[in-house]
Amino acid sequence: xxGKFTACDAPGGGEIQQRETQRYLRNLGIDARPxxxxxxxxxxxxxxxxxxxxxxxxELARAxxxxxxxxxxxxxxxxxxxxxxxxxxxxxxxxLACARHLLxxxxxxVPSWRHALYQHVDLLLxxxxxxxxxLQRLFGVDETKIRVIRNGADRKYADATSAEFVARxxxxxxxxxxxxxxxxxxxxxxxxAMQNHDIPLIVLGNVVPGHEDYYAACRRTASGNVFFMDAxxxxxxxxxxxxxxxxCLALVSWFETPGLVALEAGMLGKPLVLTYQGxxxxxxxxxxxxxxxxxxxGIRRAVAAAxxxxxxxxxxxxxxxxxxxxxxxxxxxxxxxxxx
Length: 340
Hints:
The chain has helices spanning about 15-25, 55-65, 80-85, 90-105, 115-120, 130-140, 165-170, 185-195, 210-220, 235-245, 260-265, 280-285, 295-305, 315-320, 325-340; strands at about 45-50, 70-75, 125, 175-180, 200-205, 225-230, 250, 270-275, 290. It is of the alpha/beta class.
């Protein structure tokens, strides 16, 4: 298994997906582990599983296939004009990204490192059907090379209690926004929506290197009832306890596929206010509330309604049954088997 080479700098959902898939594959008896290229030759591998759409993976995939190694890619990608337009990049680069997106839609075979990557792997495992459709429409990927593998959450979250978090921080019944602090996650819009509101808001996450100015803008915008906390390690019981202590989870990003924190909070049946950009609706259907990332007043109304709702047992059952890592690891192993 191979993730982005700077994963330790700002770990996120992709890194958790890789780690948990690996852990549960090993529980199934599969020798899944991070690849050590300085110690292991290609000949020692049956499958090289890449996580994320990274330009450095193009040559890696080509080299592996030259040695007869099956290459699997979890692309963890989303292609949307609104998402490109709201990226934290100069105007010229955003305009160029939108132009390239339109060009791909008109001519999927246009050369690019992404096109080369998707064509040079043996199997793609997108996290949703809408992501799979994008790969086919924008990059001409043959549908026979695609197998949708959903994202997941650990069932431990379903049994979490609020006691540890409340004892440590003395706060409960708050809105929780968990994730890396960066423009894509759109915390600034949520903070504007919650200004002068009597509902406490906890922003739980670390700033992504290079986006310190965005973090500073978030701090300036925050009202007095907003608390910023550094991210908890996924294995820290405080994270599960934070989900249990909150009234709802708000994830109003410019896109999510679908957001691991939504699945984790969903294990507890916590009301979810999610972005409609991405694949969240494919996962949660009518069991969540969806908002436009740019609609500040709409976000405010949705959050105010969500905090008045009790935990949803149907949501908890839905996530626990369909999006647990054991089932996902089993589906991943079956995907490997189709190649081997």
